């Protein structure tokens, strides 16, 4: 395993982390007696395999259902100093609720402390305010830190780059969990801001949210040759030293294997990535047109600035991925979250676009004349059954 300094925490962080979203039994709390033996056995085998490989950062959340409770059966069997344990708790209007939820996490994990506590989901102004206002959740987290129950405090986010940077610039957090990978690089400015504040940088779900790369389309496989799309994406992320660790979201012990192929490639990352990056860009230009590829995102309105809060940047991005790389299933899954995932994936679909006057909100876009048509096309291509976030399923 390779390790990187996790910002000012000074933790020796493995470049791969064992994220805890996919191996638990259920997305809600259930009694221990209801956990099937096979499920618990698989979870414990997954954690043991990770630790054997040097992947000693175990990451979970209060919102991940039975995950914490199931981890509580295995984590205390390791020497405590061998592990870096992170859990996350949603910010609440009532900071006492935040504290109760954290104490529940600690009981479930059967630990005296966690190394990393993330305020989970600073996605919009309300969640930021609930976190950093005087007497808010951050103040509670700092009291828990003073009591020895938390070593370092960070935040996780699905918010806009501006919201992430605003949170980073408070200089109150030791690390950040955020989205950034090959198909979605919009948060690079936030990573640079985190580096300027010497914060740890943890990439959320690069294999799933980065394109469902555990089941890639044949076109993407061909474009990423000789690497698998998953290894390509890992190498792309880790070739940037500003990134410290990637969450693997392992569901079974074998899920680490493909990712491990990345480690021996890092020394020659630039040489290996260069032809793949060129092919991916060439294919995007061939299918979408060079002018569109280079300028589609320029001066687009946010969903808040758009009638019916249609999320134009996200919809056009998903259309691009479906056309250029055959990431249709991924694009459909993400598109159908719109309108169903609150501030975790905000804004709405383009199902009513034919009734809307978008002239004003698109007035600064170089593609204003054709975007309404492309939005309608995207809806036709991507619409299906509404999708809920995993934790709501």
Automatic annotation (TrEMBL):
Gene3D superfamilies from the UniProt entry? NADP-dependent oxidoreductase domain (3.20.20.100)
Gene Ontology terms, MF aspect? oxidoreductase activity
Lineage, top-rank taxon, reads Bacteria
UniProt domain NADP-dependent oxidoreductase: residue ranges: 19-159
- Identify the PANTHER family for this entry: D-THREO-ALDOSE 1-DEHYDROGENASE, OXIDOREDUCTASE
Would you tell me the protein name for this molecule? Aldo/keto reductase
Q: Which organism is it from?
A: Brasilonema sennae CENA114
